[in-house]
UniProtKB/TrEMBL annotation:
Organism annotation: Sinorhizobium garamanticum
Protein name as it appears in the record: Virginiamycin B lyase
Required cofactor(s): Mg(2+)
InterPro entries tied to this protein: Vgb, Vgb_bact, WD40/YVTN_repeat-like_dom_sf
Segment forming the signal sequence: 1-22
Length: 322
């Protein structure tokens, strides 16, 4: 394996609110061919990632750089991973067409296959509501819910068919997803299962991922338009900002504990931090060309970036003294 850990001190110029706390970037090399798609901080301080091309859940120890893989089964191709309210890793596995739970204490994996009458769904991402129900998307035109307590699963056809990708829960427990092919935001009726389409003002913008901030506003990465947009459910208003660069292709969005929105840009091979207080961007280069950050996640003081094209995890550590 290549050198495991590299630390680079970085200065984020041009944005006082962010430059005060962006301190260093640390790079962790992973097994060649892992293709880390999504990442999630684990409760014990380690970091989980989906090793999509190797059918495994990866576990990184940030202190030592040690990495190990937990195989998820024959045919596995995991896409999304999040930490559940039970402290376990919850995985949307497109290869298995199933939801997978990994218990870090027992190291047991539990698999819930989609119903037999549901064809290959191209499972993408998941989120928990405040009742402990796991909601998930499949880009081939479905979204669904799983009750971990009973194993009951329901799958729903998405409005306008193909496209559901990113999904997020707000602090109040509401669940929204976005459709890449449909270019819309949708709010799920958690009782009945229906979905209300909320049309963004920019047509055909390619809504890819979505994240809620502390106020329940939905931040959306727009793949086709190169924008980040924000929808406020309180007054049903929209705002949108163009990401810097000549040809931005905004893939991932994550909102940190300070309500700063972090974005990955395939067009500029960059990460952008957007501060809504000043409406300004700060740009951080990726670790190499073609790094391809498809998702961003984090915890207090840390922003984690899985570089699927470089077989690396990168963390931007932030100063919490502000």
């Amino acid at each position: 394996m290549r050198s495991l850990i590299r630390v680079v001190v970085i200065a984020a110029a041009g944005l006082a609110a962010i430059s005060a706390f962006a301190q260093e970037r640390q790079v962790y090399d992973l097994p060649q061919g892992a293709h880390p798609h999504d990442v999630a901080p684990a409760p014990d301080g380690s970091v989980w990632y989906t090793a999509q091309h190797q059918g495994a859940l990866g576990i990184l120890d940030p202190e030592t750089g040690k990495v190990r893989h937990v195989p998820l089964g024959e045919g596995s191709s995991p896409h999304g991973v999040i930490q559940g309210p039970d402290g376990a890793a919850w995985i949307t596995d497109g290869g298995l067409n199933a939801i997978v739970r990994f218990d870090p204490k027992t190291e047991k994996t539990t698999v819930w296959a989609l119903p037999q009458d549901v064809a290959y769904a191209n499972l993408n991402t998941g989120a928990f509501d405040h009742d402990g129900i796991f909601w998930f998307t499949g880009q081939n035109g479905i979204y669904g819910r799983l009750d971990p307590a009973t194993g009951d699963m329901k799958v729903f056809e998405a409005p306008e068919g193909r496209g559901p990708y990113g999904i997020a829960a707000t602090p109040g427990g509401d669940v929204y997803f976005v459709s890449l092919a449909g270019s819309y935001l949708a709010k799920i009726d958690r009782e009945g299962g229906g979905a209300e389409v909320i049309e963004p003002p920019t047509k055909n913008q390619g809504a890819r991922r979505v994240w809620s901030d502390s106020q329940g506003r939905l931040w959306i990465s727009e793949w086709n338009s190169g924008q980040v947009s924000m929808y406020d459910p309180r007054d049903r208003s929209w705002n949108a900002w163009s990401v810097p660069g000549d040809d931005p292709r905004v893939y991932a969005v994550y909102v940190d504990e300070r309500d700063v929105a972090w974005l990955s840009d395939f067009g500029g091979n960059a990460i952008h931090a957007f501060d809504p207080r000043t409406e300004k961007f700060t740009t951080f280069p990726k670790s190499q060309e073609g790094a391809n950050v498809r998702q961003i996640n984090g915890r207090k003081g840390e922003v984690w970036l899985p570089e699927s094209g470089a077989d690396r995890l990168v963390v931007i550590r932030t100063d919490q003294t502000e």
